[in-house]
Amino acid sequence: MHRKTPRLGQHFLRNREILEKIVTVSEISLSDKVVEIGAGMGDLTEILINNAKEVIAIEIDPALYKILKERFYGRENIKLINQDALKFAYEELGEFKVVSNIPYYITKPIIFRLIETPNLKSMTLTIQKEVAERLSAKPSIKAYSALSIIAQYYTEAEIKFYIPAKFFSPPPEVDSAVIKMDRREKPPVDVSDEKLFFRLIKSAFGQRRKMIGNSLKSIIDEPKDFLMKIGIDPMKRPEELSINDFAYLSNELCKICKK
Q1: Fold of 194-258
Q2: Phi, psi for 16 (deg, rounded to 5)
Q3: Of 173 and 187, the one with more pLDDT
């Protein structure tokens, strides 16, 4: 398990008790195919092998990949991949779960990459505390962001526990959190146009200090008038709007686009 060093982002978590706890909250079983991104020296990998049907361990660092090959030589239910996790073909795996300590420098890109993969069942990730709190945040709190809404559109996200920096070697500058994200069978809101829905969210939070009536000028002509017409207060800030509000706004805008 690894995180950021000056070279490729490694901070090793080797505490057996914490690693066991991560696997427990992931709720994997002996019938699951599990992907580990950033396998490092294989401490989490070892536990996953004993608790899953198959483990696909991805490690970009050639030196660490060599260590993994030696450590797990002869083990039948592990497949080691020396590749950039962002370029891996997850769609070809069939149903799978992810249990990983994600390297800091690819946290957001890999979450977006995975979240859009339809055969993903769940992710249990050790990531920066701040990012975990954004993924699971509700409206009207500081951590609530575009990332919160996008993550919660696809998944149910819950922080399971926190890990202080001192448990990593070398210690990172921030604490970490273990978050579990279960893919929803269907999104919690119905939207007519997903691309427009996500574009609205990103535009709104791209200028989160502005009122919603001002932050949507690049998408809507006379946004204040439009918002008032559909019953949304244009004086509100983006973080005050729920996923239901953004879905409603998106769908009302779709009606205009179709006229």
Answers
A1: Helicase, Ruva Protein; domain 3 (1.10.8)
A2: -60, -40
A3: 187
